[in-house]
UniProtKB/TrEMBL annotation:
Entry keyword annotation includes Methyltransferase: no
PANTHER family in the record: CATALASE (PTHR11465:SF9)
Top EC category: oxidoreductase
Keyword Oxidoreductase listed: yes
Keyword field: Heme, Hydrogen peroxide, Iron, Metal-binding, Oxidoreductase, Peroxidase
GO biological process: hydrogen peroxide catabolic process; response to hydrogen peroxide
Protein known as: Catalase
GO MF entries: catalase activity; heme binding; metal ion binding
């Protein structure tokens, strides 16, 4: 057995003389409190887990790069998109949404699809899902929605009554529910699914002209999904199936890749398009706004340490760079606050300084102190702004682009209450076999619901999307079509 050339040390750097035996009073003990190495090991061990994410707790990640393949500088001044062939390092985290850190990878659930670009203008995070839409369209409903996906506070069991009660009372969820219950609800692997920014964002060019855009990551491995019975078997045999698959593929050099495309909408179209373009429960028709290629993402390096890189990775849709701005999407607006705030709570006020989150460029600001501040903390430099000491100053050319707003300050819903057209269109796009599996999945998920009122209310939504859709679910549940529809 070879001897290490390095001494084992304590956290304060002192050599450890014995790491196998506690210091005791005599050979039989008791153990002495003066064994500071023992105390340090146990105290640190008690604190090795940061709080898991409230959502997206279970996931895997990898490093890679993004390469520009199409010149779109007429739409955006973002520097990492400024030149065909330009490469930008990145880190991606894939995840399930509802389950805890130890849950299975192959459950029926949306998948998080988050990308951190380390650009020359600072980090840019694109925090999306593997679906182009979401269950709700206003952040004020998000805590309630997630509560329904978690455990019953009395039984500590998953609660289908809460899930379907909320969905049936929130008809805007129908489009995403249809997607979730379709074959796409259980991707075969992280590598075999598309990714979407889901929200509408704004690109601004060097002249200050803007467009609305949506992001689409198209998997170059092809879309593959798991049958429900296979997914259930894998959940018990290998609950880390997706994480393992991603790791193994990269280790053997089978690097997964995605083509990034955008849909581009002129700003003025937002006022006349047949659906509100900022409503995240809706998609833009690709016939109206075709996909335009931007570049290619490749994942080619696994993390060296899961906790340091995957668990501490902190993404937020508010991590922006010049040339990429936000839209009035109400769900996005809430996320701009909630994500950064979650990281401050979970990882700490200085989470952006951790290696996985740290930009590749120099950071210059007047933020000081806070827990775990492990750099020079600004030294003796100016710590306020404005100052006359030559400290960093604002760059007016990097301001977010303006857009006009009007109206009365009040709590209002989106203008459109059409929750059914796009869900019905999606249903009608499915093949005969896909429709059969969709209905089977819905019926299986709704059977445990105890209240027929909840079931009937949800059947009414399916029927409004497409009469056949509603009738088939009703027949599977042994219930009639509600009179009111």
């Amino acid at each position: 057995m070879s001897k290490s050339n390095e001494n084992l040390t304590t956290s304060w750097g002192a050599p450890v003389g014995d790491n196998q035996n506690s210091m005791t009073a005599g050979s039989r003990g008791p153990t002495l409190i003066q064994d500071v190495h023992l105390l340090e090991k146990l105290a640190h061990f008690n604190r090795e887990r940061v709080p898991e994410r409230v959502v997206h707790a279970k996931g895997g990640g990898a490093h890679g790069y993004f390469e520009v393949t199409n010149d779109l500088t007429k739409y955006t001044k973002a520097k990492f998109l400024s030149e065909v062939g330009k490469q930008t390092p990145l880190f991606v985290r894939f995840s399930t949404v509802a389950g805890e850190l130890g849950s299975a990878d192959t459950v029926r659930d949306p998948r998080g699809f988050s990308v951190k670009f380390y650009t020359e203008d600072g980090n840019y995070d694109l925090v999306g899902n593997n679906t182009p839409v979401f269950f709700i369209r206003d952040a004020i409903k998000f805590p309630d929605f997630i509560h329904t996906q978690k455990r019953n506070p009395k039984t500590h069991l998953k609660n289908p009554n809460a899930v379907w009660d909320f969905w049936s009372l929130s008809p805007e969820s129908l489009h995403q529910v249809t997607t979730l219950m379709s074959d796409r609800g259980i991707p075969a692997t992280f590598r075999h699914m598309h990714g979407y920014g889901s929200h509408t964002f704004k690109w601004t060019n060097a002249d200050g002209d803007g467009v609305w855009i949506k992001y689409h990551f198209k998997t170059e491995q092809g879309v593959k999904n798991l049958a429900t019975d296979v997914a259930d078997r894998l959940a018990s045999e290998n609950p880390d199936y997706h994480i393992e698959d991603l790791y193994n593929a990269i280790e053997k050099g089978d690097y997964p890749s995605w083509k990034l495309c955008v849909q581009i909408m002129p700003l003025e179209d937002a006022d006349t398009y047949r659906f509100d373009p900022f409503d995240v429960t809706k998609v833009w028709s690709q016939k109206d706004y075709p996909l335009i290629e931007v570049g290619r993402m490749v994942l080619n390096k696994n993390p060296e340490n899961y906790f340091a890189e995957v668990e501490q990775a902190a993404f937020s849709p508010g991590t922006l760079v010049p040339g990429i701005d936000v839209s009035p999407d109400k769900m996005l607006q809430g996320r701009l606050f909630a994500y950064h705030d979650a990281h401050r709570y979970r990882v700490g006020a200085n989470h952006q300084m951790l290696p996985i989150n740290r930009p590749k460029v120099e950071v210059n600001n007047y933020q000081r102190d806070g827990q775990m501040r492990f750099d020079s903390n600004g030294g003796g430099s100016a710590y306020y702004e404005p100052n006359s000491l030559g400290g960093p100053a604002e760059a007016p050319e990097s301001k977010q682009a303006a857009y006009s707003v009007s109206g009365v300050a009040e709590s209002v819903a989106y203008d459109s209450e059409d929750h059914y057209t796009q869900a019905g269109d999606l249903y009608r796009l499915l093949s005969k076999e896909e429709k059969m599996r969709l209905v089977e999945n819905i019926v299986g998920a709704m059977k445990p619901v105890e209240s027929d009122d909840i079931k009937l209310r949800q059947i009414g939504h399916f029927y409004k999307a497409d009469p056949e859709y509603g009738k088939r679910v009703a027949e599977g549940l042994g219930l009639p079509i509600p009179q009111e529809v």
